[in-house]
Amino acid sequence: MKTYKRSATQTKILDSMDLVYEKLIEFKKKSNSELVIMKDDKIVKIKAKSL
After folding, report:
1. What predicted TM-score, i.e. pTM, was given to this entire model?
2. Whole-number mean pLDDT of the chain?
3. At a CB cut-off of 8 Å and minimum separation 6, what does 36 contact?
4. Cα–Cα distance between 15 and 12 in angstroms, integer?
5. Any idea where the domains of the chain sit in the sequence?
6. Distance separating alpha carbons of residues 40 and 51, to the nearest angstrom
7. Which of 18, 34, 37, 42, CA to CA, is 20 to 30 A from 26?
8. What are the C-alpha distances in Å from 34 to residues 2, 7, 8, 15?
9. How do residues 8-49 score in pLDDT, each as one tens digit?
10. pLDDT for 51
């Protein structure tokens, strides 16, 4: 398996995406709404409290 070197920009983007995901989950829990995801090639709605 090959390992790839990430540039500083790529690392910043990935770190930012992680932060956005955490904030999204937090927001969905506060608003008590569903999170829509794709699982096994199907669209699924999940209650945020179960995350």
Report:
1. 0.70
2. 91
3. 43, 44, 45, 46
4. 5
5. 8-50
6. 18
7. 42
8. 38, 35, 34, 24
9. 999 999 999 999 999 999 999 999 999 999 999 999 999 877
10. 66
